[in-house]
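Morning F.,

Quick status update on the modeling queue. The single chain you submitted on Monday has been processed. Sequence for confirmation:
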Amino acid sequence: MMQQYRSNSYLFGGNAPYVEELYEAYLDNPGSVPDNWRAYFDNLQHVPAVDGSDSRDVAHAPVVESFAQRAKANAFALKASAVDLAVARKQVHVQSLIAAYRVLGSRWADLDPLKRTERPKIPELDPAFYDLSESDMDIMFSAANTYFSKAENMSLREILQALRETYCGTIGVEFMHGTDPTEKRWWQERLESSRSKPSFTAEEKKHILERLTAAEGLERYLHTKYVGQKRFSLEGGESFIASMDELVQRAGEKGVQEIVIGMAHRGRLNVLVNTLGKMPKDLFAEFDHTAPEALPAGDVKYHQGFSSDVSTAGGPVHLSLAFNPSHLEIVNPVVEGSAKARMDRRGDPMGNQVLPVQVHGDAAFAGQGVVMETLALAKTRGYFTGGTVHLVVNNQIGFTTSDPRDSRSTLYCSDVVKMIEAPVLHVNGDDPEAVVLCTQLAMDYRQQFKKDVVVDIVCFRKLGHNEQDTPSLTQPLMYKKIAQHPGTRKLYGDKLVAQGVLPADGPDQMVKAFRSAMDEGRHTINPVLTNFKSKYAVDWAPYLGRKWTDAADTALPLAEIKRLAERVTTVPPTFKLHPLVEKVLADRAAMGRGEVNVDWGMGETLAYASLVASGYGVRLSGEDCGRGTFVHRHAVLHDQNREKWDIGTYVPLQNVAEGQAPFVVIDSILSEEAVLGFEYGYASAEPNTLTIWEAQFGDFANGAQVVIDQFIASGEVKWGRANGLVMLLPHGYEGQGPEHSSARLERFMQLAADNNMQIVQPTSASQIFHLLRRQMVRPFRKPLVIFSPKSLLRAKDATSPLTEFTRGEFRTVMTSLHPEAEADKVKRVVCCSGKVVYDLIRKREEKKAADVAIIRVEQLYPFPHKAFAAEMKRFPNATEVVWCQDEPQNQGAWFFVQHYVHENMLDGQKLGYAGRPPSASPAVGYSHLHQEQQKALLEQAYGKLKGFVLTK
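Structure tokens below.
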């Protein structure tokens, strides 16, 4: 060690405290010290301790001891080299200054086009903070770990100038919070070698101005022609269109063939026309209310999606702008899911050919929790999309009256992305060339590292939140600044004229040309490919315009059932199963042979096996869904002798047949909203995969209600978007309390209309088998909400003989008669849905009530009127009809089905209710009270009709 220290002339014992401090910082975080010191200390780690032993105090003892010994032996050398030591210490301080600019430079960058505040004082960016003064400015220091110059040494003055140009100009970059040194060096090289200054040709500059002209021109055209109509103008943020243009072109050059875009309202119409190439005349027709109204409900124009194919230097690129409701950021997981489906279809696991792009407003990006939930998916296996490019249209005001001090608790609106170490490029929107450069860097980073990256375009909003708003009421000083601002296009046009890139009238000629295109309703981008169709495009035509039908041929031959059963119960010979799982598979094998009835888990498994064997993919995700929350599924088996996922697990459903379709099962992160949104997005892009989201408990869907309301329930009537997503929501009253009983059936019933979705509560193994197969076999796609059981998963009542799988189909209505009953002797019909049917059957046997028939409605919506009416007609002498449910009276299906039931009753029949009384809570938390309520509702089902009674 002594020899190692002596090889460095500036390391002397007198400097031991300083080096000791530096060494401790290195031990705490190696990235916190300059590169040359880090390399030095890396070598030190491999040097034996001073006493020659193998053990050492890694904190600082070797450093202190070595310097102490050296101080005694080299007192004369210490004096002789005092100058060297001073220079060495200054070198360290210069390295610290460089590090500070890399970390904190963005805080001093020139980012605000309105220049409303002075640059903050950042002491760490001042040379004086490191005891560096004006007298040091012309001293030469090592620049070996920078990329400013090819020279090894630079004066402090040159280094400081380079740092300020690179990190404190109109671009401020945050990347040092990452932990990957390769990525940090990548950013340092890309930024420092150019000093964050773009270098564009004259033609490229003209193109940027043309994009700014298009962005501003469309807004002003609409502002003049459609005065006061909402459009959520982009004025003040026109550089965003230049960024989008560059992103598409750069992506195409990098091999991307599909881009899925999610964005809210601000600038959406501009993107539709100036990025995706929507015909202006079609947009004008929407403003004029002359556009065709082909949907039951439709939506406002700034929620609409669109797709097109555009030409790039790398070939055609398909652009898809997702439909977006007013819950601004909820589209994020939907876009990611759509991108994932496209990746899977292409066999593109790393996202080389598919790019998700998310466009955010500053306030929503910082404020809405779905942003964080979606970011949390970014690096997980089931949801990885190869990195997302995030563009923030940061108008510095948020909605209408927000002050940054009230709109977030972080310095930047983008700080949430630091949770996944995503780099952020903040850029002044008044420097469109810098915006384009940042876009290039972001795209290059994403393609190389397959991670998320953010471009935060700091701009302003010329008008209010919408065109009917007056923001100066609450932001008078800000809007005085905005009123004086000439506009980004004007500033950049003047710059190009001054540079000689354009003649004096060049910018005005661009404005006139764009205005002419608007008047004629022509395309504003060139070229849009009108006849191109990718081989990976999905044809939804076979699933559209179909009439609703409950019928589907879902039975399978006995031989195929047995073959599938054998495949899903076989594991490799060296695979060690847990004894409990071993018994489950043995029992399932017996079910497949017809020796015992099939239980719920096996019925579900056989449905998946039959689908993947027939060419339909299956994607199943949710919390604990591999095993199943209630330990009933066992889709993923774990070797008891190994734990590594790649060698310690076996998925039988991935080994059903040669050339089978994929079966993917994912234990998701603890998220409902983002994961459900992701799966909806996946299903919206992939009609040939059975896409399923399973809630751990049905009421956990509460946390994803926005996805349910704004996409699943209404996406088809608003946007014409078919979707076959399946939701498995465990539901049932077994005394588990308010949060583990109800999947809130009433909420889904309230949302049901226009045949928009299916609401089903199956009660047997064969029913779930036929239901899941029906979802894919029928020639249309509708969301399917399954209120799946908990106690029935292992109940003997819910098992089914093998014959029910080899014939028949999903039955929307089923009737149970007492073994000794005759249909014409029935006096009361009890209608119900769900597991309560088995409680009712047992109660009927207990009471020997042979004159009671029980009709269970397995499909609550669309209500099966014909099948239900046919069952009711079987009992012409029944005078009383009762709807019985487990849920409280103000919840469950009662208020929604009573008119359906009433409609199909016979003349003179009376309709009553049996169930729990109205409640503010879904269920009681006291076990004894639950039992009392359950007993009471069953007695009520067979007792005298009370309370509200309807007569036919």
